[in-house]
Design goal:
The chain is of the alpha+beta class and 1387 residues long. 35% of the residues lie in helices and 26% in strands. It has 43 helices and 65 strands. Strands 52, 53, 54, 55 and 58 form a 5-stranded antiparallel β-sheet that branches. A hairpin with a 2-residue loop joins β54 and β55 (597-602). The longest helix has 17 residues, at 833-849. The radius of gyration is 63 Å and the shape is elongated. The two termini are 97 Å apart.
Length: 1387
């Protein structure tokens, strides 16, 4: 809402004021309470007239007649009605007979003025005849209200006698009322007429309704068809009293109530009981309201100002609220018929007029916009920036049209145009005024000229009246030409169109026509772009076209709305234009270069199809009510509202794009939508930026396809490169340099799958032969031959050849032969050998198929091509020409097929020559059978062997060739069941019982074999043949067989096999000590306590008082899995072996026990470990002496001597060795100590005479106290704590841990010199172990063969050290409740 003017107390005083607008809306009359002067103002609020009344009596009514000629003035208490004639500025007095007028109203369609009086009479005055007519007795009391029908000359009046009468223009009652007024319950007020749609939808006539407010609380609706049965509408008590109401639409009422409520109801009987809307718009009270059907709005005045309510959704339009002073109560409101002006007055003497709606009048030039901001005010802005460089112009008249140029603005009405300079506000002024001889239809401006369309002619003249060349040029030049329908001046060109369809360009520089285009029908409108390089045309049929004057190309615009009244070009993007109608905006994009030429597409909703193609659904952008598009800037439409203000609306096709930004912060779905819209708008740089963020292969493919459709190979390559499509990139590299657009269109259309269009484009290009390539690629040889006749005759031979191949595949052999012959006939001999060979091969195949066998075979053999020969042979075989087919198969090297056909024809002589080259068993089998039937058994045998028919081989060797040994060997190797049965029969017949049993088993005749073996005492053969595959029943039968013959050990073996362990143990024990090992094995398998006790009793001598070897007990514990008991037994046995001097056996037993415990992850007894260490120290002495390491040998012997009680059988020899080696190692202290021991009485007699004297001398000469052993033996760090002590000592005095010893030297293991025996995994110092293996390639611990090169150094022995540390700790605590045993060492 924009305030036009205010009229204050200077005109009306400070009391109530009333006003009345002329029906045409040009003037308003107003007068204040107690004022004598009546004022007349124009639409700008400028005083036009001042009329002095006869008295200062209060004016109660001001009423203009329908023509706006006479203003009737009713004053309270006056005896006359004043009539002011506007044209004559004359005030007349209409005398009244009754002297008491109380109400008056002018007819809406006639010249009558009806006046009501205090006594209830009516006076009707006719302004044309100047006659008065008095109607007596209409009412009995004062007439207070009334109204005229808006379309018919009837009126209604209401009186204080609570009646309402309805009369004709002459004052007569309507026929339907029977001259009786309508009786009411309360005083009537606010009488109105309305025409509404009838209840019957089939009737087109409308019903007349009179509405009356009764007692300010109810609303009475009286239908003139049945006036005596009115409808009374009562409202909720909370609404208060009725202040005002209006009719609108087809029988709808808007009612305003004193408590601030506005209620919308329908007068239709089916809806009358329901309120369509009920909203409290004002906080405390509502004063009055008025309704504008043209503006679609309601104005409501209350305690918090005037609110504007939309009649679309009954919501308040916040931006149009009018704030007034709280103490100024609104007493009257008026809305002009066209909805432009809203006027109201207050009880404080003020009249306000607001501009509520403007005619949407605007013009543009590039990005500048001129629009109507008030009735006579024009505003020029740059784009949508209303606060930028703004120029405001005031005009002398309200314009009907306008035009904007680079420097000027033209406004006008009827036949006059005013030209203003509008570069800036300071220079804005009127520069010219032109009057033309007809009504101006349109105006267009450039920098210097104006073109004006008037009644089918265009007037071209300069804008400035002071210019040197001020002549006017009139188009068309010839009088006989048809009228011009539209024109526009752009740059230096005048563009105009004729009703006969001719569009012409006139150059202002050259002064002549420079271009002409003839359209197929008359042109109604034209809309050039800002440079004039493209023109959108609308013809008489309503179709739209886009014309390009550069190449005279005119393209149809698809989906163009027939309701569109104008087209706007985007000022930022020359390819975008929109079509506008009253409801929608339709976006179009012009593609100057696309596949096949140029095109226009209607934009809207964009989706991605399954084949990465853009699916664009034409969808308009809806316009809000009352908005008109006037300018487009980069997808944003500047719209002018009905109030004259500007708003911006984003096009549906651009709503996700904005200023070229990539929207990297947007959600993924919005980014995808922006990407697709950018593709639809052909904005590939923007799409590429967004694509880098999304990085979706499907989107990249869509962009590549869209770029290809626009022939933009550069962007297509970038997109396909991102999509990881190297094939597409390489293909685009090849076609990117193609300059011919038709040729490039053909390549792209073919790439996109539209091959029909591709053929058209290729034929229209500079390289039509590409169309031939398409037909060749699709194997359309008939069309290819037609094109090749004219386009490429040199390619006919190749096409004939390929066509012949296709025809041959379709079984059209005659035509194929013809094309083969044509291909070789048109070919230059000797140029393409492959072509000739293919033609001859085709002739050979088709000739054979057509029955010309000699020609076909001859040509196939001459080609010497195995594939062709084989193919021809296949054809002949299908034709049952076996002999010829075999011949060609042989030529092709397909000996299997050839031999098969020869055998089929009984041509064995030819077949025999090929058998050595054949590898197919089936053919060999055929050949063998044929030979056998002819008695050639040796040849048949060879053939059977090649065919792998072993049954036949066995049969021939036994029955025909008498070579049984060969059959026996074959059956044993192949275990052939059928052959074995045949051989078994042969053996039985020839008395070979053992062989018969063996082969019956191979033939899976187990029962027959057992019976024969039992009968003939060949059970050993049966047992050997059965092996490990025997069943329980079979082993039971064998066991009983042996038991019957008192072969108890054999019987026990088979009882054990069938899990009869008690019986097996019983028989083994019966046999005696030689079968104890088997008995132990049985008990180990049985895991039965009873059997275990039985065997232990036997071993301990409980049954026969003869104790058995303790080794048997050890083996029993191992068999039972009692490894800890086995270890204890092993210790006992080892002690016995040591006592008997069997040190090697004791060493091996302890080592095996150690390995068993380690494999079972059991704790290692420390006694076992120490005894193994001492025994190993003794065992390796010989190796050390042999290697010359006397120091280590002496140290090991000293270690043994310290435990000499474990070697009672060889105490003296061992101590003698200790003395000798210590002497060699220069260890006199140890030598002296053990020499003294030897000289004791109990040992002295046993000392060898060889060493006795030497030992006595050692004893006689004690060594000095300083011994050299400490210097000989190195002090090395502990592997656990790095504490240094002697390397022969295994127990660390610092950390108390036990270190493992080296298998080669017996010394303590070192962290930095670690290795393991690859056989037993026992630790060894690598340096010492490798040296020892140089002397003897055998592990000292396990005696396995080991090479020095197999010893790998362990760089980080931490896992090994941890294992041994845990091992020895577990061995120390190995007892009931001990911790779990350590894990095995890493291999």
């Amino acid at each position: 809402m924009k305030k036009l003017f205010t009229l204050g107390p200077q005109y009306h005083g400070h009391g109530n004021v009333i006003f009345a607008w002329q029906p045409n809306g040009n003037y308003v009359a107003s007068i204040g309470e107690g004022q004598r002067n009546l004022f007349l103002f124009d639409r700008r609020g400028v005083q036009v007239e001042e009329v002095a009344l006869k008295s200062t009596a209060k004016v109660t009514q001001l009423e203009w007649d329908k023509d706006g000629e006479i203003l009737a003035i009713l004053q309270q208490g006056e005896q006359m009605v004043m009539l002011w004639r506007h044209a004559e500025n004359k005030l007349d007095m209409l005398e009244m007979n009754s002297k008491d007028p109380t109400w008056l109203a002018w007819s809406k369609v006639g010249p009558q003025l009806v006046i009501g009086t205090l006594r209830g009479n009516l006076i009707i005055y006719n302004k044309r005849t100047l006659k008065k007519q008095t109607i007596m007795g209409k009412h009995s009391k004062k007439v207070t209200c009334g109204a005229w029908h808006p379309q018919e000359n009837i009126f209604s009046t209401g009186s204080e006698d609570k009646t309402v009468s309805i009369s004709t223009e002459d004052g007569d009652a309507l026929e339907s009322l029977d001259s009786e007024p309508l009786r009411l319950k309360n005083d009537p007020s606010s009488v109105q007429f309305a025409d509404i749609k009838g209840e019957n939808p089939n009737e087109s006539s409308r019903e007349k309704i009179v509405s009356i407010v009764l007692g300010e609380v109810t609303l009475l609706l009286c239908n003139l068809k049945d006036p005596q049965r009115p409808t009374e509408l009562a409202f909720q008590q909370k609404y208060g009293t009725i202040r005002a109401y209006n009719w609108f639409g087809d029988g709808y009422l808007v009612v305003g109530f004193s408590q601030g409520y506005i209620v919308i109801i329908s007068s239709q009987m089916r809806e009358i009981s329901e309120e369509l809307s009920s909203v409290k718009y004002h906080r405390n009270n509502l004063d009055t309201l008025c309704c504008s059907k043209a503006a679609g709005k309601i104005a409501s005045a209350g305690d918090d100002g005037i609110k504007i309510i939309s009649m679309k959704d009954w919501s308040e339009i916040k931006g149009e609220k009018i704030q007034i002073r709280p103490e100024a109560k609104v007493t009257q409101m008026h809305w002009s018929d066209d909805g432009e002006l809203l006027s109201f007055c207050t009880e404080a003497g003020w009249v306000y007029c607001y501009l509520a709606k403007l005619t949407a009048l605007s013009a543009t030039c590039n990005t500048r916009l001129a629009y109507l901001t008030s009735l006579r005010e024009m505003t020029i802005i740059e784009g949508a920036n209303e606060n930028g460089n703004k120029v405001v112009l005031q005009t002398d008249v309200e314009p009907n049209f306008m035009a904007l140029g680079p420097q000027h603005l033209a406004t006008g009405m009827n036949n006059r145009v005013w030209f203003y300079s509008c570069t800036d506000q300071n220079t804005a002024q009127l520069v010219n005024e032109q009057e033309y001889i007809g009504t101006v239809e349109s105006v267009s401006l450039n920098g210097t000229h104006a073109c004006v369309l008037i009644e089918g002619r265009v007037y071209l003249h300069q804008i400035d009246r002071n210019s040197s060349d001020n002549k006017t040029i009139i188009f068309p030049r010839k009088e006989d030409e048809r009228t011009i329908t539209c024109c526009s001046i752009v740059g230096n060109f005048l563009i105009y169109a004729h009703s006969n369809g001719r569009l012409q360009y006139y150059s202002l520089v050259d002064g002549q026509e420079v271009n002409e285009y003839k359209h197929q029908s008359g042109i109604r409108k034209c809309f050039p772009n800002h440079e004039g390089t493209r023109v959108a045309l609308v013809d008489n049929s309503g179709s739209a076209w886009l014309y390009n004057p550069v190449n005279d190309d005119c393209i149809a615009i698809p989906n163009f709305p027939v309701t569109a009244d104008k087209i706007l070009w985007d000022t930022s993007d020359a390819t975008i234009f929109i079509a506008c109608d009253q409801l929608n905006l339709y976006t179009f994009v012009y593609i100057q270069v696309e596949v096949g030429g140029s095109g226009v597409r209607c934009l809207g909703n964009v989706e991605l199809g399954a084949d990465s193609a853009l699916k664009i659904e034409a969808a308009p952008t809806p316009l809000s009510h009352g908005m008109t598009g006037v300018l487009v800037v980069d997808g944003t439409v500047i719209c002018q509202q009905s109030s004259g203000t500007l708003t911006q609306q984003r096009l549906r096709s651009h709503d996700l794009t904005s200023g070229g930004a990539a929207h990297v912060a947007d959600a993924a779905e919005r980014q995808k939508g922006c990407f697709l819209q950018a593709l639809a708008l052909n904005r590939f740089p923007l799409a590429f930026k967004i694509g880098l963020v999304l990085n979706n292969r499907g989107l990249w493919n869509a962009m590549g396809r869209r770029c290809l459709e626009c022939l933009d190979a550069s962007w297509a390559k970038k997109a396909y490169r991102q999509a990881m499509s190297p094939g597409m990139v390489m293909y685009l590299d090849r076609i990117q340099t193609v300059e011919d657009k038709q040729l490039l269109s053909g390549y792209v259309a073919a790439l996109l799958g539209d091959f029909t269009k591709a053929r058209e484009y290729f034929l229209a290009s500079c390289c039509p032969e590409a169309a031939l390539d398409i037909h060749c690629d699709f194997l359309q040889w008939e069309q290819a031959l037609q094109l090749a006749q004219t386009l490429a005759p040199h390619r006919l031979p190749d096409i004939y050849l390929k066509s012949a191949l296709q025809l041959e595949g379709q079984a059209q052999y005659e035509q194929a032969l013809s094309h083969y012959e044509q291909a070789i006939r048109d070919h230059i001999p000797g140029t393409k050998l492959e072509h000739e060979a293919a033609c001859k091969a085709g002739i050979a195949k088709t000739s054979i198929r057509l029955g010309d066998l000699p020609r076909g075979m001859k040509m196939a053999i001459e080609l010497k091509d195995p594939a062709i020969c084989k193919e021809c042979a296949q054809v002949l075989a299908k034709m049952r020409q076996n002999s010829e087919a075999a011949q060609l198969y042989q030529e092709a090297g397909s000996y299997d097929q050839a031999a098969s056909l020869y055998i089929l024809n009984d041509n064995f002589q030819a077949a025999s020559l090929l058998m050595s080259k054949i590898h197919t068993p089936k053919l060999h089998l055929q050949y063998a059978k044929a030979k056998e039937t002819r008695g050639a058994y040796r040849e048949a045998l060879e053939a059977y062997e090649r065919a792998r028919d072993l049954d036949s081989v066995v049969r021939l060797t036994l029955e025909n060739l008498n070579e049984p040994h060969k059959a026996f060997q074959l059956v044993r190797e192949t275990r052939l069941t059928s052959g074995a049965e045949r051989v078994a029969d042969y053996c039985r017949k020839n008395g070979n019982i053992s062989g018969a049993v063996e082969f019956l088993l191979l033939a899976q005749k187990d029962d027959d074999a057992f019976m024969l073996a039992e009968r003939q005492d060949e059970m050993a053969t049966f047992e050997a043949g059965l092996g490990e595959k025997g069943t329980r029943d079979q082993h039971m039968a064998i066991a009983k067989y042996y038991e019957q013959r008192n072969l108890l050990a054999n019987a026990a073996k088979h009882y054990a096999c069938c899990e009869e362990y008690p019986m097996a143990l019983k028989l083994y024990l019966k046999v005696g000590e030689k079968e104890i090992d088997h008995a132990i094995e049985v008990v180990g398998k049985a895991r039965s306590d009873q059997l275990t006790h039985t065997l232990i009793d036997y071993l301990m001598g409980e049954s026969d008082n003869v104790p058995k070897d303790a080794n048997y007990v050890y083996r029993l514990h191992k068999a039972l899995g009692n490894f800890m008991q086995a270890a204890g037994t092993a210790l006992i046995i080892a002690k016995q072996e040591q006592e008997m001097g069997n040190y090697k056996q004791a060493h091996q037993l302890l080592f095996r026990t150690y390995q068993d415990l380690k494999s079972q992850k059991l704790a290692l007894p420390q006694e076992l470990w120490r005894r193994l260490m001492i025994l190993h120290s003794y065992v390796i002495v010989k190796r050390l002496v042999k290697a010359g390491d006397h120091v280590s040998a002496a140290i090991m012997l000293v270690r043994v001597a310290k435990n000499i009680q474990q070697f009672p059988a060889h105490i003296v020899p061992i101590l003698t060795s200790v003395v000798i080696e210590c002497q060699r190692a220069k260890m006199p202290g140890d030598s002296y100590q053990y020499a003294c021991t030897l000289m004791k009485p109990e040992y002295r007699p046993q000392v060898s005479e060889q060493y006795k004297k030497k030992i006595e001398n050692i004893v006689r000469k004690p060594p000095p106290e300083a011994d050299q052993r400490d210097s000989l033996e190195a002090s090395l760090p502990c592997m656990y704590c790095a504490f240094n002590f002697q390397e022969s000592q295994l127990d660390c005095p610092n950390c108390k841990n036990i270190s493992p010893f080296c298998v080669a030297s017996g010394m303590r293991m070192l962290r930095e010199d670690w290795s393991n025996c690859p056989s037993c995994n026992f630790p060894a110092r690598r340096s010492v172990f490798v040296g020892a293996l140089q002397v003897s390639e055998q592990c000292p611990m396990c005696d396995a063969a080991v090479k020095a090169g197999d010893i790998a150094a362990v760089s980080d022995p931490s896992q090994h050290i941890t294992y041994y540390k845990t091992l020895f700790q577990a061995s120390e605590s190995a007892a009931p409740g001990a911790p779990p045993p350590p894990p095995p060492p890493p291999s």
